[in-house]
TrEMBL record:
Residues 11-139 form the DUF4395 domain. This is DUF4395 domain-containing protein. Pfam families: DUF4395 (PF14340). The chain crosses the membrane at residues 20-46, 85-103, 115-143. The keyword Phosphoprotein does not apply. It comes from the Bacteria. The keyword Signal does not apply. InterPro entries: DUF4395. Keywords: Membrane, Transmembrane, Transmembrane helix.
């Protein structure tokens, strides 16, 4: 049986950054071609990762089993919950972009995906995860219970009080 919500407690930072790079490529292709299929694939990928982690995500599989080993990037373990939150933000942006393109709002579609490209580029190139950054504040403000991110605390992600 497939269990929804089976996201890993920890993830490989290099795989996450590689997935972000693939998201940049697919997003740029969708912006240029204005393809509903590519926008749908982007939305599917984020949805699969937020619901199941890498299990049903072609980009995650490619990153974990192909690109990261091929480039010898190794493994750097980081907390999973902030990365999952970042994927949820990706679901929102890619879903919004898909809907905008479906309804013919091409400029708005391109703007929304352009923002996604910016933040995915920051993750891929610089290792700055904006969703993870926001996640830390949500914990600090009490919007996300601290127990949700016990792994974060163990991996020194905890927000200082």
């Amino acid at each position: 049986m497939i269990r929804i919500g089976n996201f890993p407690d920890t993830v490989n930072e290099y795989a996450a950054r590689t997935v972000a790079g693939l998201v940049v490529i697919l997003s740029l292709a969708a912006i240029i071609t204005q393809s509903l299929w590519l926008a749908g694939a982007l939305f599917y990928g984020f949805s699969a990762r937020v619901l199941y982690g890498p299990k049903f995500s072609p980009f995650a599989k490619l990153a974990i089993h192909g690109i990261v080993p091929l480039l010898g990037l190794g493994s750097k373990t980081v907390a999973g919950p902030p990365k999952r939150f970042a994927q949820l933000v990706g679901v929102i942006f890619s879903g919004t972009a898909f809907a905008l393109l479906y309804f013919g709002q091409v400029s708005a579609f391109q703007a929304v995906l352009g923002i996604l490209v910016l933040f995915a580029s920051l993750e891929s190139i610089l290792g700055f995860c904006a969703g993870c950054f926001v996640f830390g504040f949500l914990i600090q403000w009490g919007w996300i219970p601290e127990e949700v991110c016990e792994k974060c605390n163990n991996l020194q992600f905890a927000v200082k009080k």
